[in-house]
Amino acid sequence: MFERFTAGARAVVRDAVEHADRTGSDTVGEPELLLALLDRTGSPAAAALDALGARREPLAGELAANRRRAGISAADAVALAGLGIDVDEVVARVERAHGAGALADGGRRAGRGKRVRRAFAPEGKAVLERSLRIAVGRGDRHIGDEHLLLALTARHGPAGAVLAGHGVTFDAVVRVLEERRAGRAS
Questions:
Q1: CATH (domain of 172)
Q2: CA distance 176 to 171
Q3: Domain containing 58: what range?
Q4: Contact by Cβ (8 Å): 12, 128
Q5: Three-class SS string for the chain?
Q6: 100 — alpha (psi -120 to 50), left (phi > 0) or beta?
Q7: Angle 11-17-22 (CA atoms, 0-180°, nearest 5)?
């Protein structure tokens, strides 16, 4: 599959591994792939994110907050609040007892500060596989960073939820990519 990835898509995957290293995550998942996409400039995914008004800092902040809450999204936290569960209070209590970031990655910090090979989490692998299916479905012969972005928005995972909260949905990304494609064709 990786032979079909463009240089830009391969760079996203490499950068996602580096994001996992920096955050101390044991695996590479959706959040790391999204952070790597947000770092891109001059690519189809970067253009789509820019056209949709997605900005790195707010998105990265929400991903960090979700990570701190053990993957519980802002929408999930609101739903739990409706049941009388204050997620921020739970996180605060756990962090008081076990230290800051105790819930991030289940409290594991293996490999922090040293270079280790990061495996892809199941949802990270699913994004890569979904990007292939999306590329094939669109009739594209390659897998570019735009296919990775589409794969992230195609389901309601941690990255997809954060993106959707900023208006970056699968349909919106498809629309922007089609507009760009039509603009290049004329």
A1: 1.10.1780.10
A2: 9
A3: 2-185
A4: no
A5: CHHHECHHHHHHHHHHHHHHHHHCCCEECHHHHHHHHHCCCCCHHHHHHHHCCCCHHHHHHHHHHHHHCCCCCHHHHHHHHHCCCCHHHHHHHHHHHHCCCCCHHHHCCCCCCCCCCCEECHHHHHHHHHHHHHHHHCCCCCECHHHHHHHHHCCCCHHHHHHHCCCCCHHHHHHHHHHHHHHHHC
A6: beta
A7: 120
Return the structure tokens found at 75: 């929408």
CA distances from 151 to 91, 129, 135, 147, 160 (A): 30, 8, 10, 6, 9
Domain count, the chain: 1
Q: Rounded to whole angstroms, how far apart are CA atoms 21 and 26?
A: 8
The pTM assigned to this predicted structure is 0.82
Beta-bridged to residue 143, according to DSSP, are: 5
What are the CA-CA distances from residue 28 to residues 31, 32, 91, 105 (Å)?
8, 6, 23, 11
User: What mean pLDDT, rounded, does the chain reach?
Assistant: 87
Q: What pLDDT, on the 0 to 100 scale, is given for residue 114? A: 53
Give the pLDDT confidence of 130-146 residue by residue, as tens digits: 999 999 999 999 999 99
| Sequence-distant (≥ 6) Cβ neighbours of residue 55 within 8 angstroms | none
Contacting residues for 43 by C-beta, under 8 A, at least 6 apart = 8, 144, 145, 146
Q: What is the pLDDT of residues 68-81, one digit of tens each?
A: 887 777 777 888 88
